[in-house]
Design brief:
Length: about 280
């Protein structure tokens, strides 16, 4: 493949010697010898070099290539955004310093399988001093066989597979665990309130009332704290759970004051007569 304008085109061999094809190139031509296809490889933190670009400057052969790697080993689950995240690092490298400028520009087009999202689908290297360019990757759920494909007129298409770091059970079911914990702490607060009075009957009603208060707080509290006060989620969760027990206690106490004692006693007598 030889650069023509802003792209690369196939060059025709002038002759064949055994299994080797010989091409006629000008000294200033930028060219690359690339395979017809490559198997998909797993993306890791170990850089993988794509095809090597070559040219001749003042009689010296200049080479450069693009390295591809992940910043972290796996697509990691972010507990805050509830997304799998990773960073793809693309780096132009050459040992020939400023002379490698003759190999540029290089444009890489990035494609993904369904479900993956890239912060950018095109990366262009125009200067040897640019170094590495990071592209953020996101996915809403764990996927098997997820791939990122790099395409370029200069380089052969290369598929990369992505591995996912499965989140722990406490992270995957955090919302359900938080609700259950809020209900339990609210019920505990109601139970503490019943222990303070020996005259309280039907203690389970007080516990159920406290559990209900805990449920209301855990469902509404996190939304309110995050949207109104912009508190980060770990702090929000611990704060809300701490308040569930308090609200369970205070909620039962308020319900006791709202319900007249004589009506409660009548209910007790009615239950006794039934039995």
């Amino acid at each position: 493949m030889v650069r023509k304008g802003s792209g690369f085109v196939s060059s025709t061999a002038v002759r064949q010697e055994g299994t080797n094809a010989l091409y006629e190139l000008k000294p200033s031509d930028v060219y690359v010898v690339r395979p017809k296809s490559r198997p998909a490889v797993a993306l890791t933190t170990n850089s993988m070099s794509l095809d090597t670009l070559r040219t001749t400057v003042n009689g010296q052969q200049i080479e450069g290539h693009v390295d591809v790697a992940l910043r972290s080993e796996l697509m990691v689950f972010d507990d805050t955004t509830r997304q799998f995240q990773g960073t793809l690092a693309l780096c132009f490298r050459s040992a020939d310093g400023a002379k490698a400028q003759n190999l540029l520009p290089i444009t890489l087009d990035l494609f993904t399988t369904a479900g993956l999202r890239l912060a950018s689908d095109t990366v262009t290297f125009t200067n040897v001093t640019e170094g590495c360019k990071d592209v953020e990757i996101q996915c809403s759920s764990e996927r098997s066989g997820a791939k990122v494909t790099i395409k370029s007129s200069a380089l052969a298409d290369q598929e990369f597979t992505l591995n996912f770091d499965e989140p722990p059970v406490t992270t995957r079911y955090r919302d359900a665990i938080t609700i259950v914990a809020g209900v339990a702490l609210g019920g505990l607060g109601g139970l503490v309130r019943t222990w303070q009075s020996s005259r309280v009957k039907h203690r389970w009603k007080r516990v159920a009332g406290g559990a209900f208060c805990g449920l209301v707080l855990v469902l509404l509290g996190q939304i309110g704290l995050q949207s109104l006060f912009h508190i980060s989620e770990p702090v929000t969760t611990s704060t809300v759970l701490g308040l569930c027990a308090v609200l369970g206690y205070l909620g039962v106490r308020m319900l006791e004051r709202m319900v007249p004692k004589d009506s409660e006693e009548k209910a007790d007598h009615s239950d006794a007569a039934t039995h």
